[in-house]
Design a protein that fits this description.
five-stranded mixed β-sheet; alpha+beta; five-stranded antiparallel β-sheet; 52% helix
Length: 449
């Protein structure tokens, strides 16, 4: 079954609301009119009752009928029946009076032979227990006809107003939803080649401006992610092209003519180095892919960061000595985390710092124990990094300006991206600062409970 459009739903809702309100107002008016007629009839019958009691007071029996006829002649739609205390009829002003009438006192409405009456029973002498009973009958057929016509008019008004509201509501809803159709048209035209399209937020109604802003922000994120993905694919192809070309060229040269076994052994060793680097590149890419999908699940074990840092500094000490760089560490703190993952992150930062520290420079690792977090920073002296390059340092395959890269395939530019993934997997953050001849990578890790 086809679902109703939003415009149709709004139109039906408007029509239903109008019908309910109109019907409710009509019923209230009908009840108020009926109550008003009852009140008027009550006043009329009470006045006639007083007049009849006064007319029958101290009247000779032979003159009663004349006095009653005279009194009733002033109200054509009024009839009277008088009965004694035993229920025997004394007087009927008309032959059309129904035979069976209610006996209870007060005002009662009855219908008989297509005629509606308002009946009032009251004693002729209120102070006597055996007083004859007066029964006044007021023909209210014209009242009832008026109320019926009014009810028919109410139903007709309800139907016409609901129909008119449905049509006007459909037109208003269609006009009001025009910005949504414009959004839909723009969304249909968006593709991988046109992610730069944006919705005109200034032309949107206030109710849709926030959605348009969110939609534009989503397009911006998609555009940025698509650009990064395209750049990532191009970088992968670029990084793999060089070692593959080396392997192909070296293998083709080796196979051009027969060679001694030692030459083949040397060629295989050279190819093995390139294959190992390619294998490491693929492993790093898989590691980052797991991080992107939230599959890095660090183990939680108590670690003394000072001890872990000393192990790494001892490992890098020979390289630092050869490069004439001083290594140092200060501070200590305990944290819960994955030993192997945190060692890899710090190792990447120390390796990066050693590569870009000039001779006679220094690399410092500091640990600061804060109330709710632990801050670990690795800083090195040397040429700084410009501020516009700092936000891109953690991008994959990104290397800073040519003065800070080695130009070989030994470092593919994934180390900082892996470090960031490890830190985020532990619930922390990493940032880079560069000023006054020092470059500092700062890691903030939350403390375990």
């Amino acid at each position: 079954m086809r679902r109703l459009s939003l415009s149709s739903r709004l139109a039906l809702l408007f029509a239903a609301c109008t019908a309910v309100v109109s019907l409710f107002a009509g019923v209230l008016f009908s009840r108020a009119s009926e109550a008003h007629f009852v009140e008027l009839d009550q006043q009329l019958l009470d006045g006639k009752l007083i007049g009849l009691r006064r007319a029958l007071q101290d009247v000779q029996p032979g003159q009663r009928e004349a006095r009653l006829a005279d009194e009733l002649s002033r109200q054509a739609d009024l009839a009277l029946r008088i009965t004694d205390s035993d229920g025997q009829r004394w007087y009927d002003s008309s032959t059309q009076i129904p035979t069976d009438l209610p006996k209870q006192s007060g005002l009662v409405t009855v219908s008989q032979a297509g005629t509606d009456y308002r009946v009032l029973n009251a004693p002729l002498y209120p102070d006597k227990t055996d007083s004859p009973q007066l029964t006044l009958l007021l023909d209210i057929t014209h009242h009832q006809h008026f109320l019926q016509r009014m009810q028919h008019l109410i139903w007709l008004t309800v139907g016409l107003s609901a129909l008119a509201t449905a049509l006007l509501g459909a037109w208003a809803a269609r006009s009001g939803l025009r910005p949504l159709r414009r959004m839909s048209a723009i969304a249909r035209g968006i593709s991988a080649q046109s992610l730069n399209a944006r919705l005109p937020e200034a032309q949107m109604p206030p109710e849709l401006a926030e959605m348009a802003h969110s939609f534009n922000a989503m397009l911006g994120r998609l555009d940025d992610s698509f650009q990064r993905l395209s750049a990532f694919s191009a970088d992968i192809a670029h990084e793999l092209r060089t070692p593959l070309s080396n392997l192909l060229t070296h293998t083709q040269v080796t196979l051009t003519r027969p060679r001694p076994i030692e030459d083949y052994r040397e060629a295989l060793h050279s190819n093995l180095e390139e294959l190992q680097w390619m294998a490491q590149l693929v492993n790093d890419m898989l590691y980052l892919a797991k991080a992107d999908h939230g599959l890095l699940m660090p183990k939680r074990e108590a670690l003394e960061l000072a001890d872990e840092s000393d192990v790494l500094l001892e490992f890098f000490a020979p390289l630092a000595e050869d490069a004439g760089v001083t290594l140092s560490r200060e501070g200590h703190a305990r944290i819960e985390g994955d030993r192997s993952m945190l060692r890899r992150a710090l190792s990447n930062l120390l390796d990066n710092a050693l590569r870009f520290t000039p001779a006679a420079g220094s690399v410092r690792l500091s640990i600061v124990d804060q109330p709710h977090a632990v801050q670990v920073s690795v800083e090195n002296s040397g040429d700084g990094i410009s501020a516009d390059l700092l936000p891109r340092l953690f991008d994959r395959f990104y290397r800073a300006d040519p003065a800070r890269q080695e130009g070989s395939s030994e470092h593919a530019g994934l180390g900082l991206a892996i470090t960031q993934s490890i830190v985020r997997a532990h619930g922390g953050q990493i940032r880079c600062e560069s000023a006054a001849g020092w470059t500092r990578f700062v890691i903030e890790l939350p403390k375990g409970e």
